[in-house]
Amino acid sequence: MNQIRGILTCFLRSPMGNSYAGQLRTTRFEEVLHNSIEASLRSNIVVPRPVFSQLYLEAEQPSTHNGRTENDEEDEEDGSESNSPPIPYQMKPPPDGCCTTDGFCQAGRDLRLSSLASDSLELLPGFMLIGLKSPSLPENLLVGAVDHRFLPDERGHNALLGFSGYCMGCGEKGFRYFTDFANHINLKLSTQPKKQKHLKFHLYRDNQGVLVKGAPICWKGHGKIGGRIRQMSSSLSETHAASDEQSSSAALLHSSHAPGSYAAASHANGVAQTSDTPQSLTNGTHAASSSTQPVINHSGPGRPSATGLQTNAGPPKKRHKGWSPETSSALLENTGKMPTSSSVLTSSTVTANGARLDASATLSSSSQRSLSTLSPSGLSVAVPDQLLHTCGLQPVIFKGHGPLPQLTGNFSEVLVSSLLQSCYLSSQTLPRVYQHYGPSPIQPLSTEMQILLTVYYLVQLGPEQVPLIEDLEQIFMRSWRESHLSEIRHNQQPQTAATQGRHYGIEAPPALPGLPQHLGLAPQQPLTPSQLPWLAQLAASSCGEGVVVLGEQVGSLAQGLQQMFSKLMEGRFENTNYIVVIVTASGHETQSCVVVTGKHQCRALAENMFSPNEGLREINQQLSSGEAQELIQFCSSLGQDGDMDFLLDSATLDSNEPSPLSSGQESSEEKSMKNTHSQKDSNSPKDKILPSKETCSEFSVEWRDIRPIQLAVARKLLSHVCAIADSSTQNLDLVSFDRVNFLILVPPSEVTFQQTVLHLWSSGVLQELGSLEQDCVSQREAERYVVKMDQSAQVRVDSLIQEAHTNSYTLYILVHDHAHWDVSSASYCSADSGLGLVDQLLNSRRVRDAPNILILHVTSFPFALQTQFTRISPYNEIHWPPSFSNDVDLYHERTRYFGVSELLESTRSGSSLPLMRCDSSFESMASALEERFPKLHSAVIRTTVLIHHYCTALMAVSGRIGGSHNLHKHTSVETLGIVQALLSAAQQCPAHHGHMILLRIPSLALAAWAHRRLSRVRRQLGLEERFEIILGNPSQPLNVGHSFIDQIKLWLKIQEADWVPRTYLELEALPCILILTGAEPQGESLPRSLKYCDLRVISCSYLQRTTLEQELGLAAYLLKAESRSPHNPGPGSDLLESDAEKLSSTDNEEEESQENESSPVSSNQPLQSSPDVAAAAAAAAADPSPTQSSTSTSPKAPKSTVETTPSPSPAHIQLPPQSSSQPFVFHQPSILHPSQLIAQTYSLAQPIFQPQILSQSQLLASANPQLYFQTLPQHQIPHAPPQQLAPARPRRHPSKSTSSSSSSPRASSPHLSCSWARGVSRPPSVLLPRSLYDIITANDGSGLPRCTSFLPHMSVAWASSFRPLLSKMMTCTEQSLYYRQWTVPRPYHMDSNNRTEGRSDNFHPRRLLLSGPPQVGKTGAYLHFLGILSRMLIRLMEVDIYNEEEINLNVQLDRVQYSPPNALWPDPDVMKTLPFDYIVHDPKYDDISLVYCPGYRPASDANPAHQEEVCLRRRTTRIKLSKYAAFNTYHHCEQCHLYLGFNPRYQMYESTLHAFTFTHLLLGEEIQLYFIIPKSKEHYFSFNQPGGQLEGMRLPLAADRSPDCIKSPIFTPTTGRHEHGLFNLYHAMDGASHLHILVVKEYEMAVYKKYWPNHILLVLPPVFNGAGIGAAHFLIKELSYHNLELERSRRQEGSGSISDVWPFIILADDSCVMWNVVDFDARNSPVEHAASLKQVLQHMEGCPDLAHYGLCGIRKWSSRVLAGPNQREPFSRGHLHDFLLLNVDRSQNVQYDQNRFTCHDVDFTLRLHSAGLLVCRFNNFSVMKKQIAIGGYRTFIIKTKMTDVPTSVGPSQYVCAPDSKHLFLATPAQLLLEKYLQHTSHKLFPLSTKNYEHPVLSVDYYINLGPEVTVCFVSSRPHSVNICTTGLLFSGLLLCFADAFVTPSFLKKFTFLKGATLCVIGADRSSLRQTVGRLELEEEWRFRLSDEFQTANAKEDRPLFFLTGKHI
Questions:
Q1: Strand 199-205's sheet: what is its strand order?
Q2: pLDDT, tens digit, 9 for 90 and up, residues 1399-1457
């Protein structure tokens, strides 16, 4: 009852619009209210859901009754939504005199659409034209304007309650109720007007501007029109669905999916959860009342579910159309029986969602519910005996819906898989975004629809295709999206219309064959169980016997399976591939299973059930047991042509005869070379290519060079490392590291290990890091930095961790190369498996917690590391950038990368033979043998066939076999061309450079057998010296023959005697066959001489993206950038030397295919039986006539690049692909060779467009070349002379870059004689199995290759089936985010346990991921990154120090030495005799006015420069920081933690704000300052006891002595440098306790407190926010003196001596970084070395007579000080800057000028000296100042008051005449005055310019008048110390704010030049006049009215005034 009361409360409080006040009693509201109450009674939810949220704001689910929705009857005028009689409605009578005509408004204006269609109608903003339906005008619509906010969107949602509209006839506005609007437009209704009934259509204007009826208004998202949209009867529906699928990826990509909603087959724990959806509403409106689905619970842990909220779970108060007692009772029964546990699917083997099948899946009885419960007792099916023997296959049973009966008997010959069942469950688990959608119509597919779609998918499969679960899953998703098109459109993004090309894509057809149009993928009517069997049989009938449906007479699955086994044994399913068993017994749930009976499919699925290691073990067992011996013997037999071994033995006996290949077909160069050989060599029985002394000018090895793009990637890595260091998390303190060490982890491949070592050794990184000496670096010494991830890695990594723990100042980089290789969890792997080491070592707590270890994962396939539980932050991912953009070389590369995408593009270009293709002849033979040997593994069969083809091709090409044997029939054209290119390539080059052929054989046992077999054939044919055969075993080093090693050493210019190649890269240009074995490649790089990548025997079982792409990545290549784009060659390109006409050419075929040369060679040479005929044809082809040459270039190629004109291969016939709409012009060839027809199968889906030119025999040859060649007589094998074949290429219209024909290139291009040189600019060709080729070359719905939508890695699973497809426009970053959202790690993945409760992520802060394509140069990039990281750390340990010599030095040779150089402290008596140096020597003041000094004479060549910012041109030196340096906020070391505020006793940022007020006599007012004092620093202050108010700073006594304490408080005024200010004095103080106070402006208080939480802040009053450095020093000094008086009073109260209180403070600049001291104990001369600030201050504070000095300081550091003659005196009197020790007691009467911005320290020192106080500089100490370009008190911007944007205002505009209209500036008046005088004083004081002998007299005030004017400072105070001015004539007088001490008599002491200038400055005009009168200036000075000025400030800004005059 509480829940009912809560719902009623929600109802009473819900806001209701007036327009719906009368509708609250309607059926819809009562129904929703009743359902809510009833659902709450049955639900466990504490908080009820609001009624109005269900009624208006969420998606509505209409009740269904007999397939109709409630909306179907909404057009009935007299109907209502309840069964009660309609309520009569009486319309309001119209006013008198109004128009009541139908179609007109009450104002008499026409509203009919037919009348207003051509009128110009103006709409108010926000309104839409709507067509209204009137009962009296059924054939017409009325036009109205309605506010769009009150209309629904295309989904039927988001319409506001109420109405707002106006009449389009009369224009009357303000209709707020639809009832009033209906009365106005004369609808004349008998029922209450409803906008949902009468606002029917949107109106729009067509192309002619006519207003027409548009789309209907979707009020509730359902109804007749909504149902029609979902039909799949036309091709438009497919287009809609495609665009709908595309629109899904945007929003779904950002939807969150909790782990509780993962699919059964995808969840890491195997847990599947299904939906809270009752039976009758599954699949949206497809509900079947007679069958029920399992009630699926979406509730995760801790989240209760509301059952029944989405449906009518019980009878309402009134009976409604959509409800029946039957459905209610069924629903209630089902709801009550619903179990609470989640479905669990466990498997003993790993399922990869289409990649693998689990053979032994066990299902929990408590969790599988109706879909997968255990079979009932007594139900079993007996498997017949001899099933495999009788049928020749092992059937595969896919579990579907319902329990599978137990199999008995010979069950070992049947395989059972739960993969299909998992797909069904996953496709019925809605994502969480749809779970709580209110009364939502979004439901998963029904069981019946899943089965029907499965049948259709099986029907459309080809006879050789294997079903893929990914395809079926995408079909389910496609159907689900289309069934809810309008509901999920807002979560979608557009996709391309349809997949191109073949039928292998996942696209659903526009209509299902054999099905009614209304039962397409998304039928409007529900699919009932009774309809399912005959609809499935109807769909299956379209493919004959390929798919059989057992359903009509089947009562149970056991009965169906028994029938299936019986008919299978009877041979009735011989032509059947799939049998679908459907059980639809009334009263029971629909059950199903699928039995695979196709031989090819059963073999593929059975092999899929093996894990990779299990498959390899099975292959090894078959080879070791001899099961494959029969197959090998069968392949060795050549039928009528004899036995292969016999032929080889005969060839061995005849090996003494010269080989036709080596004699009749060799080039003239080789003949001349052979004539020079010794007799022994010429009589050698073997065909040798000896190491040639000749060199090839084109050969070069470039893989050692660093490329620009690698530099860019290295810098990106460095920037990411800096970003980690700069973040506020403080996870990496780069400043604390002074060096870099590293360890590179690679897979346990010997070649990969040696390859990485080679890259490391040649990169120079070791020398740069200082690890090895430059002269003694060897490759062996570099091996200690690389480790293989085997058992030895544990010791190496542990050693590094221990070293990192002890060396905290070294940054260790762990580079995990090929990071996708081992992602296994250590807890799931055994110790001897070699897996799980990465998890054990890199994910250990010791590595994670080490602050100086950074991990860099490097991989080409990062998908396994991008899951929901990844340890790598997305911000720490670095993706390889594209080097080209719109064909523009972004990095000025000399190379262009050719990878997997370019390979795929070559299959669609159509301009030449694709680089990636399959071999139909090989596939045909392999398929035939698979049927003959059903028990053998397909890898054994395919490898045997492949090696047989290679052996036969070697025999055919070698010429040692007798001419009567037609060996070409027993191999494929592809293999023949590969072998021919291998043997002939080396003869083209004088240095015998050749090609590499890669054979990829994953099984080591098969690879070893293949190596032995090929080696034997090579030896028997006498070809041992022609090419090498290498077994690429990852666990073993390379084994290359000695003669080939000698050849490689000659090419690479290697002098070492014991050198052997250790990497494949070192096999560059070696003619060889490399048999690469291993379950997967492990990062081995291949040389550029790789020409063919033969992948015909790789496994097709494991279809993951990583597996496929890393196999294809073996062919990745770096091309020369200037070469033509490989996938877009020009017409007649010879880019591929494996074209059809070249597959059978002779030794000269490489020469004939050179660029700029025609290739008219015949393509039928291998078909000739006589070698003489072949030699004759080759000889004829070797000298082509110029008339046969026809060259052209591609439009994109350079004009100098000319391509050849090959003979007409199918690639050059250029049949357009299916997607092309542009016709090509064909020229019929006279004769078409069969091999050309064979090659047509290389191009996908390219039909023969000219069948009239093909004979029946030629068509036969294209279909079955083996049969054709065997039946065709030898003399009828067609071949044509070159003259006939050459013109057969198509002619295209010439483009601008098409060149004319040229002659033979032998004279012009001799460098092309080397086939290797031509090959480096051409990528290798790739041969794939047919099944993989079909998959890879197909596109998915987004236009991407099909393989990209596969599971990314076998160790991860999809988080949900309801995921969008990858988009073609996605960047690498977006792909990463996609996989991070939609994949989860499996339990055996190392990231599966990377979950932290309460956190959304668990990223490792010091872990980076570098991803890039295979073989693109990632190793070189990260090695260069290590180098620049080391350089950066060295740079971080350095700082730019001002290194300037002192200026204005006056060298005196006869100087008096006052103190010994090594004197410790100054003597006051001696210092008084030392003359005061008035000259400023600080280099930063080289642009100020000289201070006149009698003994100084300026240098004659002095030419001071005028520059505003001196720091821009000041000289600096880079110096390494000492251990006593001061640091900024970026420094975080362990020692600084307590200093910076990380004190365990206090919470961080715990500080208090205290006010401190004192009265200053000069200001005449109170000054209130604020202290922000951290808790840890409160002991430096005194507080009163009652209120805790601040009383003052505690000061020590002068007699206090402490070795770890600094007595003087340190004040540092700062502004704008909260990050860069050097306030961290912990290291500088060497641990001494000190009081450091930062003096900041009020508006910067917060930011300084944030960055320096443990520092005391003294906040200046707000009035000083715009003040300069003078104000800060003024307040510091006055505050310190006031505090001194307070402390003396406190001490006096305690009976202490007031003179004992320490009176000194330190004023330090915020850029002081280091301090130095001069060491006089050095042997030769004084040496300056670093000292701590503690040492400097304690020495100065320890001066015995320090109290006699008013101001002390130290000099500024310069590298040349000790070398000069001016630093003999250890102490001096003069100006002090930057670092001051101020005696606030003795200097109490001398204040800093609070208004000053510049030169305030010069002014203060001059006044301090004139007051008679001693000033002392300690010259044996120096301070280093860091160059900081940010902030500081010297940075002021002159800007106008009109705008805050800085404007260029000249100095002449800084002042103006009083009361004039001038541009006022928003700058302090004092600053304007100082800048004006600095820049214009040479005009103001013309007699003073460059006139040192006649300075300007400045009284009591020093101000900068510019470097050309000299200032003589005098003080007017009594008893002041001034220079003697007798006889000195002044050129000007400057009176600034003259006080009472300046009198007329005082001024009369000085003499001025005639015409000297007077400048009087005052605070206002009145004080200016008073000064002139008081000082009687008018007696000697002439003034004019125009000589009065003011600063350019507004009146409220208090400008300063000054008056000028001339001396009379």
A1: 165-167, 137-147, 127-134, 199-205, 211-216
A2: 556 898 899 999 999 999 999 999 999 999 999 998 888 899 999 999 888 765 456 78
Pairing of strands 1910-1914, 591-596: unpaired
Residues 1015, 721 contacting (CB under 8 angstroms): no
- Element spanning 1319, H or E: helix 1315-1319
**Number of helices (H), then strands (E), in the chain:** 56, 59
Q: How many CA atoms lie within 13 A of 1007 on its CB side?
A: 23
The crossing angle, in degrees rounded to 10, of helices 447-460 and 532-540 is 10
How far is residue 806's CA from residue 813's CA, in Å, rounded to a whole number?
Answer: 15
List, for residues 1327-1345, the tens digit of each pLDDT value.
999 989 988 888 877 778 8
Which tokens sit at 1467?
């003597």
Answer whether 365's CB lies under 8 Å from 345's CB. Answer: no
For residue 1002, pLDDT beyond 90: yes
Average pLDDT value for residue range 1859-1884: 91
- Which letter, b or e, does each residue of 1842-1863 get, where b requires 16 or more Cβ atoms within 10 Å of its Cβ? eeeeeeebeeebbbbeeeeeee
For residue range 1564-1597, what is the model confidence (pLDDT) as tens digits?
678 889 999 999 899 999 998 877 889 999 999 9
Whether 825 shows a pLDDT value over 80: the answer reads yes
Query: Beta strand pairing status for 2001-2007 and 1981-1991?
Result: antiparallel
Tell me which amino acid residue 1067 is.
L
Q: What are phi and psi of 1325, to 5 degrees?
A: -90, 145
Q: Cα torsion for 1778, 1779, 1783, 1786, to the nearest 10°?
A: -30
3-state secondary structure of 702: coil
Show contacts of 1045-1053: CB within 8 Å, 24+ apart. 1046/691, 1047/691, 1047/992, 1050/691, 1050/692, 1050/991, 1051/699, 1051/991, 1051/993, 1052/701
CA dihedral 1634, 1640, 1645, 1650 (to 10 degrees): -50
Which segments within 1277-1337 are labelled E, that is strand?
A: 1325-1328
- Cβ neighbours of residue 1404 under 8 Å, at least 6 residues apart? 848, 855, 871, 872, 873
Q: Rounded to an integer, what distance in angstroms lies between the CA atom of residue 1967 and that of residue 1937?
A: 9
Query: Is the Cβ–Cβ distance between 1620 and 1532 less than 8 Å?
Result: no
Please say whether the beta carbons of 569 and 387 come within 8 A.
yes
The gap from C-alpha 746 to its chain's centroid, in whole angstroms, comes to 24
Cα 1424 to Cα 39: distance, rounded to the nearest angstrom? 66
**What's the half-sphere exposure (Cβ side, CA atoms, 13 Å) at 1970?**
11
Secondary structure of residue 190 in the 3-state scheme: coil
Rounded CA gap, 626 and 618, in Å?
12
1804 φ/ψ angles, rounded to the nearest 5 degrees: -65, -40
Q: What is the C-alpha separation between 1965 and 1981, in angstroms, rounded?
A: 18
Q: Supply 1166's token pair.
A: 């291998």
CA distance 1398 to 1411: 30
Buried b (16+ CB within 10 A) or exposed e, 1103-1117: bbbbbbbbbbbbbbb
What are residue 1865's DSSP bridge partners? 1840
d(CA 438, CA 1209): 63
The DSSP call for residue 1886 is G
Selection from 451, 459, 448 nearest residue 540 by Cα:
459
Check: CB of residue 1408 under 8 Å from CB of residue 876.
yes
Helix axes 1004-1020, 644-653, angle to 10 degrees: 40
- List pLDDT tens digits, range 745-786: 999 999 999 999 999 998 889 888 876 555 446 788 889 999
| Distance, CA of 994 to CA of 984 (rounded, Å) | 8
What sign does the CA torsion over 932, 935, 937, 943 have?
negative
**Strand pairing class (1727-1731; 1779-1783):** unpaired
